[in-house]
Design brief:
With 122 residues, this protein is mainly β. Helix content is 0%, strand content 50%. Strands 2, 4, 5, 6, 9, 10 and 11 form a 7-stranded mixed sheet that branches. It has a 4-stranded antiparallel sheet with strand order 1-3-8-7, with no helix packed on it. The radius of gyration is 13 Å and the shape is globular. 30% of the residues are buried.
């Protein structure tokens, strides 16, 4: 099981980025929950968006209304559309998967990508 993120970069405040996470090697007879977790400099990890087993999405209050999580099962890819970025969003963003547990808490995820860096300048 492998997750590979892409799409990070540097933007000015108010800008947008779309992160992608390509999944491979996952069992097709299992259902997984998916999430995006970030860790800024000097901060603890924070779950920002998650997809439940039924595909329903949940968001941290800090990103609600600005970020959108989605997935394209045909491409085995999950996305995080990030709009109206501000300096507080600067972090390394990880995609993660879990078999059997769902939610925004980073502790539920057992499969992690390597992360992609997002930098927002004012």
């Amino acid at each position: 099981e492998q997750l590979v993120e892409s799409g990070g970069g540097s933007v000015q405040a108010g800008g947008s980025l779309r992160l992608s996470c390509h999944a491979s090697g996952f069992r097709t007879d299992r259902r997984y929950c998916w999430g995006w977790i970030r860790q800024g400099p000097g901060n603890e990890r924070e779950g920002v968006a998650a997809l439940d087993l039924d595909g329903s999405a949940g968001y941290a209050d800090s990103v609600k209304g600005r970020f959108t999580i989605s997935q394209d099962n045909a491409k085995n890819t999950m996305y995080l559309q990030m709009n109206s970025l501000n300096t507080a969003d600067r972090a390394k963003y990880y995609c993660a998967a879990s078999y059997g547990a769902c939610g925004l808490g980073d502790h539920v995820y057992t499969i992690w990508g390597q992360g992609t860096q997002v930098t927002v300048s004012s």
